[in-house]
Amino acid sequence: MSGWLQDVRYAVRQLSRKPGFTFIALLTLALGIGATAAMFSVIDAVVLRPFPYHHVNRIVVVRTNDPSGSQTVSSWPAYLEMRRLNRTFQALAAYEDYWGMTLLTGKQTQYLQVTQGSDNFFDIFGVQPMLGRTFLPGEDQPGKNDVVVLSYEVWRQDFNADPNVVNRTVQLDGEPYVVIGVMPAGFRFSSRTTNALYIPMHVRPSWVSARDTN
Length: 214
Hints:
- The chain is of the alpha+beta class.
- The chain has helices spanning about 1-15, 20-50, 75-85, 150-160, 205-210, and strands at about 65, 70, 95-105, 110-115, 130, 145-150, 170, 175-180, 195-200.
- The protein has two domains: about 1-50; about 55-210, no CATH class.
- Helices cover about 30% and strands about 20% of the residues.
- Strands 3-4-9-6-8-7 form a six-stranded mixed beta barrel. A two-stranded antiparallel sheet has the order 1-2.
- Strand 1 and strand 2 (about 70) form a beta hairpin.
- The model is unreliable at about 30-50 (pLDDT under 50).
């Protein structure tokens, strides 16, 4: 132990005589640690903790191209047509995961990430909810889409892991939604939506008439 302390004292004395070098060495060390930590986070999320889906290597994202050749999102009518004509995939589902909504539970409010999915969204992953159910056929249609599935994290943090949370009414952006299910621990749709809510796709009237040019 004394030998180790002597080495530390010697290193400090040597570095103090070259403050410029010390700064560069410490900065390099800090940047190296930061880069290593960031890289480990990516590897941990993608490799060590891969998405917990069945047959994850068979799940793909289908995109369309606009007239300029750039990738873009598909319109709702185009999705319905692809789903009707599909002969390649076992199933096709639509989603939007760039939404956020304010959840009101009692007197507490929290802004959470929200994924909207078509009625068959959860069927793609082959993962059963821990509590309750997921979306039913037709629940992505207006008047039927006021239901919500909670992530495991939201269930624990915002609902105190209440085992009776199913059928409870909550407020999302001031509108009533009925909790129909809770996904198991570890389920996530993307790296951005661990702390998330899942609601059926809110099909707007403008979507019905919109159509891709491809």
